[in-house]
């Protein structure tokens, strides 16, 4: 089935892991509309043409059973064949193996290893730098420099590779693992004035233009205005995770916003601990 024909359902109805899939659907993804990690799995499922059911969670009100699926209490979780797979990279790799066509990884072990190096770099170095700048909420020179340094490494990979995509001639696994944060660059610009320079990042800027033309990216795209609204609140502490539900256009900032003080290496630093753990 061509990926454009694939029915996928996005819903706020809290379907449980054992609730049957809708007719014709093969798997379920527990997600949150604004989540870049969940977007990784949505991109792979879409690229594979796998018909799936997306259940959006309110991460401020997680049902207790969700921790049985993922002890970290995080989305994404993929439900398939009676199993549940969490951690976005593991879930995406699972989808690549469970649904071999179209292949998003090269058969050549060296090319595959390079692709892993690219998205591992972004996950390990780029994402923490991205959130640290976001959390600052202004053009903090130190955090801007840190993010630029890790983005320059991606530009360097592309220069050495000399291909239109990290995967090669077409978008592939590594492109979809890196993309969600590049889709969020306009949001980061709105909040911190950060942007890529055409002098330093010509290849990445050309990659971004190409990625926007990819039908899979277009399908999984998130309303940019909602992203800015969501992260404006998120960076201060307690976001409204139901933003975007049923056309809901505003995140509620009615809860008192708290700037979380500890050093930020991942999203944990942006969230109050009690919203991440089991309630009982
Ligand atoms: N390392 C995880 C990170 C996933 C993650 O941080 N997801 C966020 C949403 S974007 C989440 O579910 N957070 C739980 C919470 O904030 O309570 C992965 O790669 O899947």
Description:
The protein has two domains: 3-98, Glutaredoxin, CATH 3.40.30.10; 109-213, Glutathione S-transferase Yfyf (Class Pi), Chain A, domain 2. The longest helix has 28 residues, at 109-136. The protein has a five-stranded mixed β-sheet, with helices on one face. The protein is globular. Helix 1 (36-48) packs across helix 6. It is α/β, with parallel strands linked by helices and 280 residues long. Helix 1 links the parallel strand 2 (27-31) and strand 3. It is 44% helix and 8% strand. Mean pLDDT is 88; it is low at 1-5 and 252-265. The protein binds glutathione. This is Glutathione S-transferase omega.
Which ligands appear in the coordinates? Answer: glutathione
Which value, in Å, is the CA radius of gyration? 18 Å
Classify the helix fraction into a percent range.
40-55%
The N- and C-terminal alpha carbons lie at a distance of 44 Å
- State the low-pLDDT regions, or none: 1-5, 252-265
SS element count, helices: 10
Mean pLDDT, all residues: 88
Cα shape: globular
Task: Let me know the number of strands.
Answer: 5
CATH architecture of the largest domain: Up-down Bundle
Strand order of the largest sheet: 1-3-2-4-5
The biggest beta sheet reads: 5 strands, mixed
Structural class: alpha/beta
Query: How many domains comprise the coordinates?
Result: 2
Order of helices and strands: EEHEHEEHHHHHHHH
InterPro entries: Glutathione-S-Trfase_C-like (IPR010987), Glutathione-S-Trfase_C_sf (IPR036282), Glutathione_S-Trfase (IPR040079), Glutathione_S-Trfase_N (IPR004045), GST_omega (IPR005442), GST_Omega/HSP26 (IPR050983), Thioredoxin-like_sf (IPR036249)
Pfam families: GST_C_2, GST_N_2
Domain GST N-terminal: 25-103
Protein name: Glutathione S-transferase omega
């Amino acid at each position: 089935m061509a990926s454009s024909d694939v029915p996928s359902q996005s819903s706020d109805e809290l379907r449980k892991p054992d609730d049957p899939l809708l007719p014709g659907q093969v798997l379920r993804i527990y997600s949150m509309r604004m989540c870049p990690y969940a977007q990784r799995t949505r991109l792979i499922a879409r690229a594979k043409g796998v018909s799936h059911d997306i259940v959006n969670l309110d991460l401020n009100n997680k049902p207790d059973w969700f921790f049985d699926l993922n002890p970290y209490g995080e989305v994404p979780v993929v439900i398939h064949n009676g199993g549940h797979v969490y951690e976005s990279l593991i879930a995406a790799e699972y989808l690549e193996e469970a649904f071999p066509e179209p292949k998003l990884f090269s058969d050549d072990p060296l090319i595959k290893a390079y692709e892993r190096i690219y998205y591992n770099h972004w996950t390990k170095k780029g994402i923490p730098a991205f959130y640290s700048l976001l959390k600052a909420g202004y053009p903090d020179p130190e955090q801007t420099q840190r993010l630029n340094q890790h983005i320059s490494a991606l530009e360097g990979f592309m220069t050495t590779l000399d291909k239109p995509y990290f995967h090669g001639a077409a978008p592939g696994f590594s492109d979809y693992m890196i993309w969600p944060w590049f889709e969020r660059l306009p949001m980061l610009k709105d909040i911190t004035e950060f942007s890529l320079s055409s002098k330093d990042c010509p290849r990445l800027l050309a990659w971004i233009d190409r990625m926007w033309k990819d039908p899979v990216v277009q399908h999984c795209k998130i309303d940019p205005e909602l992203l800015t609204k969501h992260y404006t609140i998120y960076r201060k502490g307690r976001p409204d995770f139901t933003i975007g539900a049923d056309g809901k256009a505003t995140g509620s900032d009615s809860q008192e916003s708290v700037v979380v003080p500890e050093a930020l290496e991942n999203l944990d630093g942006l969230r109050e601990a009690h919203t991440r753990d089991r309630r009982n």
